[in-house]
């Protein structure tokens, strides 16, 4: 055994309460090093009567490590534990302080999970596990009310620029809710709706006001109510890291300098406020002088923003918040933000925009989830860019699953493109077979999938601003076959519970290969997913129990022989198989 590779620590993603009764315990070891792992657990106050060895299963692997896991339900919600590690005939015990050949006589030197306190249990909203999100960039989705068009509005469908307007608004969304219902959408994530000067609205002028070019409070209430009647939840985008240049407190500071009562609302290094050598004399988003960074440590700023968070939940009934540039705001603010939001609506979904490893925000005291860009990059590297083979992709997914508690992975926000990236179809260079293959993994993986508006009908677009094109509403210019594909994919995800919350196990992911096979298992129900990421046909051989398997997408049936299922898939084809007997 390579003892140096074996790792565990209490709490975080290594030992955590999955629910009010259940602990998940994990351990890391060198890949393919250990053959068996057991958790040695018991109650410290009645050790001799309660101690037991609990088998741990191989949860997932990456390119360097195996990750072992078990679930236990301590009768009194507390436990001491160590590990028994085996590699063939060799075995060793692991305590909190050492590796030893002898079994620990008592619990004194073992790891400890002191108590499952219900208030500490990370409990994201249950509904998110089953949600299908759709991201809308309001200025470009549909123009339903020409009376509120901005000055100089352009004809619908023109070339998007960073500073032009086409008149999209909230009434336009209301007018096209049938499209979302027909597709199967159950959640909408809106980019910012608050008053601002830009087309993207990330430069907030008034956090308490819907932008007049989109509508007003009455319009958004009408929209949210219409969505709720259809079973669609609504997520608002909040920019609490920075405001816009027309935010009243910032205007006051610009005018009065150090004499402004709002000077401590921002991070100002030097007066007067100006730009020197392309760098503002105050902190901003990036180096954008029109987006001054808010001082969320300031009590007045914090109170104002928390009132904003509460107001839109109580006044309009929104179902959660997506939080822009979330990793640049202090943790203290987000902890108070969570308390405020959950007090207003315990079922609200709190989603942070973080592009990298995010475990510091996913411990149950801040966010429910983050925008899962590591997932995005892994899928694109495998299916689109060809940077990963099947083994490399499985390792990337395994590494991701090992980082977070299971409940965080179950509500992760899984996207393949957004208003901040080139569109999926463009990344695929127009190859819709590759696009479908990427979406197939997205919809058969843990977490909530999100479709960027227009992807479902074949909208393309390069990097911002081109990815923010006007939605295409002329039926003859929509790809109806692609729409039906997404419609079917959503229906299958809703029908097959293992695709949403089942355990993931890779069955085939070879080095240098392009065949990927994995299963999702929940309460004994098994779903097999096969992906051929290659420009020619390939045959999959999978060990199975049942004889007859049916593809939920094509409805084709396959018969196993002597415990082996053979499935040939053509170039970039896929299958989602369930046992028919």
Automatic annotation (TrEMBL):
Domain Glycosyl hydrolase family 13 catalytic: 135-493
CDD domains, sorted: AmyAc_CMD, E_set_CDase_PDE_N
Gene3D superfamilies on file: Glycosidases, Golgi alpha-mannosidase II, Immunoglobulins, Oligo-1,6-glucosidase, Domain 2
Keyword Manganese: no
InterPro entries in the cross-refs: GH, GH13_cat_dom, Glyco_hydro_13_lg-like_dom, Glyco_hydro_b, Ig-like_fold, Ig_E-set, Malt_amylase-like_C, O16G_dom_2
Keywords: Glycosidase, Hydrolase
Top-level taxon: Bacteria
Family: Belongs to the glycosyl hydrolase 13 family.
Protein's name according to its UniProt entry: Alpha-glycosidase
Organism: Paenibacillus puldeungensis
Lineage: Bacteria, Bacillati, Bacillota, Bacilli, Bacillales
